[in-house]
Amino acid sequence: MRISNHPILGKPEEKREVEFTYDGQIMKGLEGEPIAVALKVAGVKIHRYTKKYHKARGIFCAIGRCTDCVMVVDGKPNVRTCITPLKEGMKIQTQYGVAAKES
Amino acid sequence: MTRYDLIIVGAGPAGLSAAIEAAKQGLKVIVFDENAKPGGQLFKQIHKFFGSKEHKAKIRGFKIGEELLKEANDFGVEVVLNAIVIGLYLDKEVTVNINDEIRHYKGDAVIVATGASENMVTFDGWTLPGVIGAGAAQTMMNLHSVRPGNKVLMLGSGNVGLVVSFQLLQAGCEVVALVDAAPKVGGYGVHAAKVARCGVSFYLSHTIIKAEGEECVKGVTIGEVDSRWRLVPGTEKHFEVDTICLAVGLSPMSQLLKMAGCEMKNTPAGYVPKCDETGETNIPGLFAAGDVSGIEEASSAMIEGRIAGLAAAENLGFLDKEELSEKIYELKKALLSLREGMFAPGNRGKAIEKTEEGIDLSINLLKKGYVGETEIERFPGVTRKKGVHPVIECTQNIPCNPCQDVCPKKCIKIGDKITSLPTLDETKECSGCGMCVAACSGQAIFLMNEEFEPGFAAITLPYEFLPLPSKGDKGMALDRSGKEICEAEIIDVKTKQVFDHTHLLTMKVPVNMAGKSRFFVVRRQENE
């Protein structure tokens, strides 16, 4: 998924690899990249399920406008993952309606 | 409450340009932007811009963004990021959400340069993960170095759909189809042609019927529509894709202007404020610049921004009326020249059949994305000559002239009218330097030598993909539609800093294929 060398932009800026959890699973991403990008690279497409009809939603606009990609991040729901930078140890959970699934 | 001479909303091409001009005149300027980085969409635009020198033609969008930021910095413009302007009130009071706190500012003048947001289109399955906006695709691949998908279907043949399709190919994605419900390609023909020659099929008069998949996109079905947009039964086509990309237009984000009480109007370019020629709305001292005042290119937005910045300076007494009109004279001229040609804002929705020179437009280009073999000969840039010479497949009147500027031998002529099709001066000798091939933002210029070797021709083409072929590589030549037509061998690869990442490949093909061969793929190793 990552573009290691681009014909116009060249090699991407080097970033530190960090660990985070996605619904309890340990995953790796690059520090400072949007959470949504790290999840995409890890193969996660579904960010949340709608409250009423339980329909899957994922990245749509990728610039923080549409709010389709919101998830529960470090316990806070409705975080726009496409514009929120990934940090070491972040706890990221699929959002069901407006909350994480109760375990 | 904090007071500024000028408050600008939006740090994109228009907002930054306005800030620079106003700061140059001595105004105390602050720019708010809701994003974490300034530059608006410029940093996602990796293609070379159209226009002429004063429009920064042949420079890639992200480089223009870097230049603007540097200039803004040099003139001491204050840019506040992650700052969402949530209100614009009477007397130009502005409320801004910064770190979840509402702060209150007042500007003696305000320029709104909020840009535009993407339009959406609904179809069965449109909310599935995997259906994304074209802007999202650009953001992922050009800012975050991640492919948005492996197999992508693009909906929309305007410039955004075409440019992003090409960028998807550059990022290593497969574009399985380019679909548009309109009967004709909406964007520049040259953008379409460079996508088509890579083998992407165009489906005009087609629309998406359904995005398939339970929880994410696994496929898509499209179908043909008739002249009244009704589906034609039995025309369904299915593609296996993991991503559907929507490029169906932009809408001005003019909400703040409406909120401030500006007189608004509905136009083909969106719901926009009524403005005078400097971008001033009916509220004195409140200006609009860039896409928020009507969707155009970033090149126009930058000029509109500069004009609005100067007009704001005049409004506050930093410039007198005469100085203002003197300063904006050249800018207005540059803006007008960008608004000429068949894609001019005034031509939206009009059916144009001939070029300004009276040549019939290529129908194949509008229907399939590439100029047909029998059509190409009628355009003035396509000539035959002994020895090496350029072949310019520029068939629409677009305001653009870098080819004329860069030719050291003055072989290429556009003239004073920037939208004219380039012609070749037969009395001048082409040196084969390839500057025009690399400078053409539409990648529509090729160098041809029909007498390279007995029975073989040499064709030089622009190439912006990886891996870059090397001299001696054998492969296939592709025609304008992307079909493999004959064997080809790379005989030269030119890479120069001045070409700015556009490499020049020269391939050898049988001479009878010279008129058709327009792209190259390395031969697939079947035994691997």
Automatic annotation (TrEMBL), chain A:
Superkingdom classification of source: Bacteria
InterPro entries: 2Fe-2S-bd_N, 2Fe-2S_ferredoxin-like_sf
Ubl conjugation in keyword set: no
Keyword Oxidoreductase: yes
Pfam families associated with the record: Fer2_4
GO MF, any single term: iron-sulfur cluster binding
Keywords for this protein: Oxidoreductase
Name by which UniProt lists this protein: (2Fe-2S)-binding protein
Upper taxonomic lineage: Bacteria, Bacillati, Bacillota, Clostridia, Lachnospirales
TrEMBL record, chain B:
SUPFAM superfamilies reported for this sequence: 4Fe-4S ferredoxins, FAD/NAD(P)-binding domain
Pfam families: Pyr_redox_2
Coiled-coil regions listed in the entry: none
Positions of transmembrane segments: none
Keywords, alphabetical: Oxidoreductase
Domain 4Fe-4S ferredoxin-type: start-end pairs: 388-417, 420-450
Name of protein: FAD-binding protein
